[in-house]
């Protein structure tokens, strides 16, 4: 048993029990209220730069499973939780959550009063935090001096185009920090997918002659993403069905003239009711957002709002008035999370197939 | 035996998609009127109108149209003219039916529309296109293309009329 | 339109029917009345709290189809609620719909199919197949070859059941293909029609429940999921259960969630539906085994665990509101009832068995757990880790059960352990702990018991912890750790061979103090108006003292044989009267089905075990003026008094003292005592069949003749005196007076139309006015609400549940009772 410390930029210190790697780590501390899907969450690339705290008291009970990877390695900078369960589900019983984090050099800290910390973060918003051996002045100096990169997309996006072949429609995915769930869903529709780096040019996309284009989710501030991405959106939304997810949703909004700003307090979980405006249906989906599309900025754009989170009235979906282009703020790939909004992919693929000729299914 | 080939959720999604496409194609919904062919076409028309209202906050007129006895292959055809309560001159009409098959129903509906005025345009929206056209008619908005044998029949079920949503093939 | 709503009651308490239905009914009545509808309740449970309300029409009749049909006609009923009366009300509701057809009043939220599917497994399976939802695979075979066809499709193991069996029902589990032929032939020979049913066996699969709600717009919300620790094969009520679900990977969890939505849609249920799954952990595949369209122990558990106001929300839904329109004060974010409950704590439900009660009186029972429910009640433990929740749940459940003592475990032979691992009994959690102690590996145990390895890791932690505590007495870090994982001061004291009070002082001196956390459905994401708390030992405490002048009421604890429901009734009355007196009330209990935790009662609640250490911790925060304790908690009362606490005892005998196994009947005289003077209320008679209260036996002459015994204590309360036969002039009056059993208190309230316990509380608080004094002075002329009524002990099927086949003391062991007017 090793005591380590979680320290926050505002001076808060929590003592806890070390697990995972014994390294010192820095990141933005965010809480996630999901009760299932810890492995999917810690491997979701949107958490690059972040220390994730689970409000659910125990994680690890389902072990580590290859189907639950949203990227090959964990993306988080650290894991904070009340209890960790030492379960291995692999054949050799050698890969518990603890082993897995150790192997990938991600530190964790347990026995933290995560409820107190959640209530604290609820008031202060996102804070920089660090998991350290000693909560001394030196540690706080380092924490306060630490500057997190704003180049997350550049660091996570694939450097080279690659194929995820299928026998169906030809779909291009522009990778801003793609999670595997998106490819898994497209595979379910047998799409022939080419994943392109985030700096892909209009020509590169056009040369693939896609039937549809997906602007992927990813970490960080959409306002930091280079102009080329916006150009791709503006060009192809007119030509083929376009589907933006997460960061891709925010980029779709910006490309069409809307404003995106940082949330006072980030929201990560899967329990908020989301209303689909056109039918007034309520759905639930995994959400992970630190930025939001400003409602008032929509008015002068060719976009309209398709989904709203009714707990905080934030925009959760947009659609172009004139083109078959739409986007969602939440994660429709359900990895982890409720399955109902996977129909956004069905909708996208129906649009793709319809425009490809033949219409319908 | 009847077999459900489109469930309630997929049917809802198809209606939603048609609605979005109507907005897309018409660059908005001003001057729009929806003509629904009785019986289920009217319910579909109403659902589309409701969706448009939800999104755009404007009420779109829905005109029910009963062409049971107007089809050219109906020997009980009375030849009587149908008159609308709405003025449709210069309106953009969306004609709505549940299933597009030979095209004869649509032709009769077009006749009835033309008898009532001079719309700016008429677009056709159907929930199911099952093929086997006998007239040069094509839908602008299609929910589902369902290839069928002529011997088969397609049944669209709607909550308002049948108690539940879904599309069955028999 | 104003509806006349008939609420069909649940009748007597029974195995699987604690007070949860009453809790729900009370809340349903409030909402229905708020909408301006009229309420008629038919129920014959003398312990029901709801039917003691004076603002509704209560019809005290047996729950039979004839009685209900008559009420429907006479009272012009336009709508019915069946979802708070358990399986009885659901069955009766279905029968009414079938008999009356289109003329039947609508059942709010439910249709006939789902009500039938609740009772008829075959029908459920057929409907689920139509909905394309996996259900237990089952096929009929009339010869061996057909049976092999079925098994080739299903794969082993299977269960062979003869159709229309001669004699007893028979279930043959076949795990080896070589045994199939013989089993099928045995089955065929036992069947009158020479047919067998072949079910794919789900024994050993994991049992999961999900509770979903739906509104008329088809919006669905998952309220929560519950995981049984024990596999299929042990009745779910007898299993230790955990929420939120711990061991399912997200994709499986989401699959079940979607399936539950599909089922509630498929059956077109408005309101709540519990869907039970059996999950094959090897392939993550599932079948649906049961649907429950009424409020039962799972719903009660989830209400307690999530803090979600389920009953008020669901009642609005069945009255036609949409979820989006329902606002709830508990939930901070936009007050929306649509926020799916999310928990940041763990709740473990622990069954209460009565084997110990039986055995201490020489009654033989079968201890082995199987598919027939044997537990009679439930308690919960709440914590921030599985260890903590489990420790607290065990503590809440086990008082008075010697099977739980460590000496019993030490005496178990190795063979005995194996036998009990494979054939679990009521004390299996201790067998599991003992097996780990003796060196069985987690994987071995998981294989043998089909319990998920996760729980063995957790139990191993508990063993390690106890070992550490034992070996390191009086070390602060050790105490800290022990408290962090839920060990009580009492247990630590036992491990150290010390006194509880010494441990508490040591802990106090070292600043190891409990922190209380709120139950609320957003896991801390939103500011909530919560008033329910549980303890843990962390850094932040959310519970601050309610006020300067408060009363603390200790609940009756988990439901038990005998007067479980009546005890719940009485303590709820105590809480209600304190509130009516304008006293801020803090309630403490650990049974999720108890009346005391209905939202209408109390200003603040603690879900905690009721051992002295837990109670003292709450007292230290709340500093109440008085603490009200049920009289049977003698140890607790004494310990509290030793700590200088002002304890108000709600006088109670340990069990109904007047019950008699023989055929005789005795006269009972009932009194009210205000602390100084004793007042005669009336007489009744009592036998092993029940109690009769009859106002007419009390003649003018008798009234004066009956003795008014001298009381030694100054505690106001309800008392009674037993006489062999009616007192006459020559009788030696039996002057020993004892507290009135809670069962009698509840029945007396119903018959006289007076809430006697409320009167007791007023005198206890010294808040009586001339109104009360006048009332007591004129008791002789009080016209009883029901001149003559009989309480009959409910003949719960002990033979089926406990395999007891001997005459029982009904007053002591009855689970519930009914009453009727004579």
TrEMBL record, chain A:
<dbReference type="GO" id="GO:0005524">
    <property type="term" value="F:ATP binding"/>
</dbReference>
<protein>
    <recommendedName>
        <fullName>Carbamoyl phosphate synthase small chain</fullName>
        <ecNumber>6.3.5.5</ecNumber>
    </recommendedName>
</protein>
<dbReference type="InterPro" id="IPR029062">
    <property type="entry name" value="Class_I_gatase-like"/>
</dbReference>
<dbReference type="GO" id="GO:0004088">
    <property type="term" value="F:carbamoyl-phosphate synthase (glutamine-hydrolyzing) activity"/>
</dbReference>
<feature type="active site">
    <location>
        <position position="333"/>
    </location>
</feature>
<keyword id="KW-0055">Arginine biosynthesis</keyword>
<comment type="subunit">
    <text>Composed of two chains; the small (or glutamine) chain promotes the hydrolysis of glutamine to ammonia, which is used by the large (or ammonia) chain to synthesize carbamoyl phosphate. Tetramer of heterodimers (alpha,beta)4.</text>
</comment>
<dbReference type="InterPro" id="IPR017926">
    <property type="entry name" value="GATASE"/>
</dbReference>
<feature type="binding site">
    <location>
        <position position="220"/>
    </location>
    <ligand>
        <name>L-glutamine</name>
    </ligand>
</feature>
<keyword id="KW-0665">Pyrimidine biosynthesis</keyword>
<feature type="binding site">
    <location>
        <position position="218"/>
    </location>
    <ligand>
        <name>L-glutamine</name>
    </ligand>
</feature>
<comment type="pathway">
    <text>Pyrimidine metabolism; UMP biosynthesis via de novo pathway; (S)-dihydroorotate from bicarbonate: step 1/3.</text>
</comment>
<comment type="function">
    <text>Small subunit of the glutamine-dependent carbamoyl phosphate synthetase (CPSase). CPSase catalyzes the formation of carbamoyl phosphate from the ammonia moiety of glutamine, carbonate, and phosphate donated by ATP, constituting the first step of 2 biosynthetic pathways, one leading to arginine and/or urea and the other to pyrimidine nucleotides. The small subunit (glutamine amidotransferase) binds and cleaves glutamine to supply the large subunit with the substrate ammonia.</text>
</comment>
<dbReference type="Pfam" id="PF00988">
    <property type="entry name" value="CPSase_sm_chain"/>
</dbReference>
<dbReference type="GO" id="GO:0006207">
    <property type="term" value="P:'de novo' pyrimidine nucleobase biosynthetic process"/>
</dbReference>
Automatic annotation (TrEMBL), chain B:
<comment type="function">
    <text>Regulates transcriptional attenuation of the pyrimidine nucleotide (pyr) operon by binding in a uridine-dependent manner to specific sites on pyr mRNA. This disrupts an antiterminator hairpin in the RNA and favors formation of a downstream transcription terminator, leading to a reduced expression of downstream genes.</text>
</comment>
<comment type="function">
    <text>Also displays a weak uracil phosphoribosyltransferase activity which is not physiologically significant.</text>
</comment>
<dbReference type="InterPro" id="IPR029057">
    <property type="entry name" value="PRTase-like"/>
</dbReference>
<comment type="similarity">
    <text>Belongs to the purine/pyrimidine phosphoribosyltransferase family. PyrR subfamily.</text>
</comment>
<dbReference type="Pfam" id="PF00156">
    <property type="entry name" value="Pribosyltran"/>
</dbReference>
<comment type="subunit">
    <text>Homodimer and homohexamer; in equilibrium.</text>
</comment>
<dbReference type="InterPro" id="IPR050137">
    <property type="entry name" value="PyrR_bifunctional"/>
</dbReference>
<keyword id="KW-0808">Transferase</keyword>
<dbReference type="GO" id="GO:0006353">
    <property type="term" value="P:DNA-templated transcription termination"/>
</dbReference>
<feature type="domain" description="Phosphoribosyltransferase">
    <location>
        <begin position="2"/>
        <end position="147"/>
    </location>
</feature>
<keyword id="KW-0805">Transcription regulation</keyword>
<dbReference type="GO" id="GO:0004845">
    <property type="term" value="F:uracil phosphoribosyltransferase activity"/>
</dbReference>
<dbReference type="GO" id="GO:0003723">
    <property type="term" value="F:RNA binding"/>
</dbReference>
<dbReference type="InterPro" id="IPR023050">
    <property type="entry name" value="PyrR"/>
</dbReference>
<feature type="short sequence motif" description="PRPP-binding">
    <location>
        <begin position="93"/>
        <end position="105"/>
    </location>
</feature>
TrEMBL record, chain C:
<dbReference type="Pfam" id="PF02787">
    <property type="entry name" value="CPSase_L_D3"/>
</dbReference>
<dbReference type="GO" id="GO:0004088">
    <property type="term" value="F:carbamoyl-phosphate synthase (glutamine-hydrolyzing) activity"/>
</dbReference>
<dbReference type="InterPro" id="IPR011761">
    <property type="entry name" value="ATP-grasp"/>
</dbReference>
<dbReference type="GO" id="GO:0006541">
    <property type="term" value="P:glutamine metabolic process"/>
</dbReference>
<dbReference type="InterPro" id="IPR016185">
    <property type="entry name" value="PreATP-grasp_dom_sf"/>
</dbReference>
<keyword id="KW-0464">Manganese</keyword>
<dbReference type="InterPro" id="IPR005479">
    <property type="entry name" value="CPAse_ATP-bd"/>
</dbReference>
<dbReference type="InterPro" id="IPR005480">
    <property type="entry name" value="CPSase_lsu_oligo"/>
</dbReference>
<keyword id="KW-0677">Repeat</keyword>
<comment type="similarity">
    <text>Belongs to the CarB family.</text>
</comment>
<protein>
    <recommendedName>
        <fullName>carbamoyl-phosphate synthase (ammonia)</fullName>
        <ecNumber>6.3.4.16</ecNumber>
    </recommendedName>
</protein>
<dbReference type="Pfam" id="PF02786">
    <property type="entry name" value="CPSase_L_D2"/>
</dbReference>
<dbReference type="GO" id="GO:0046872">
    <property type="term" value="F:metal ion binding"/>
</dbReference>
<dbReference type="InterPro" id="IPR013815">
    <property type="entry name" value="ATP_grasp_subdomain_1"/>
</dbReference>
<feature type="domain" description="ATP-grasp">
    <location>
        <begin position="125"/>
        <end position="319"/>
    </location>
</feature>
